[in-house]
Amino acid sequence: MVKAKQIVFIDFEFSMPERHKVPRGFFPEIIEAGVVVVENGQVTDTFSSYVKPTAFPRLTHRCKRFLSISQEKVDEGISFQRLMDYFNGLNERGIEKVVTWGNMDMKVLRDNCSQARVPFPFQAQFVDLSMEYKRFFGDQNQTGLWKAVQEYGREGVGKHHKALDDAITTQHIYNLVEQDKKYLDKAEPTTIGDRIDLSKLYNLLA
Questions:
Q1: Cα gap 105→29, rounded to integer Å
Q2: 132, 151, 160, 161: the active-site residue
Q3: How confident is the prediction along the chain (206 residues), in pLDDT tens digits per residue?
Q4: Strand residues in the chain grouped as ranges (E)
Q5: Concatenated DSSP letters for 152-187?
Q6: Which residues pair with 127 in a beta bridge?
Q7: Are 74 and 31 in contact (CB under 8 A)?
């Protein structure tokens, strides 16, 4: 059977300690997961669930306030192993790329897998879209997810810091950047005069 070439967009929300009171041994745990699966340019699956933390099951006031999340919702979430089962199922079908905004999602996932003593589920290429965005537009600083989509004259999907909404927004930015890359590739000047006229490139990027 030929494996699918899926692009998987992932966003996690994590637990966090109080600002000036970090428990001994604390580490961020995934408490919400949002996933968008794309195959041949079409969304074939979405996944959204709270995930119940085990090492530090009680959420801090800071975490609940920042993420607008309740203890009850997280307590009703799936286990971390169930989340891994879902990712392993995607992996069996074939994943070409795993795309996140920033590198924290994969760092926390690796750490959570290590703490739970379960194998890391992905062997695909990883894309930190925030770094791609930074390189493409020549920004000096990394841009936040929703600021990036607003710079495109769009709005983010749903609610910021809601995992599935952020995963969908990441997918939208990925599509916009890929379209711009193709546009610039096709817009190469054809004469020596054009090649030294940088104003055309500036107009494209304006």
A1: 10
A2: 161
A3: 556 789 999 999 999 999 888 999 999 999 999 999 999 989 999 999 999 999 999 999 999 999 999 999 999 999 999 999 999 999 999 999 999 999 999 999 999 999 999 999 999 999 999 988 777 766 555 566 656 666 655 555 555 668 999 999 899 889 888 887 766 655 444 443 443 444 444 455 54
A4: 6-14, 30-39, 42-50, 95-100, 125-128
A5: TT---SS-TT-HHHHHHHHHHHHHHHHHHHHHHHHT
A6: 99
A7: yes
Whether 20 sits among the annotated catalytic residues: the reply is no
161 is catalytic: yes
Dig out the tokens for 62 from the structure.
């800071």
Classify the phi-psi angles of 25: left when phi > 0, otherwise alpha if psi is within -120 to 50, otherwise beta: left
Q: Could you tell me if 83 and 56 are in contact, meaning their C-beta atoms sit under 8 angstroms apart? A: no
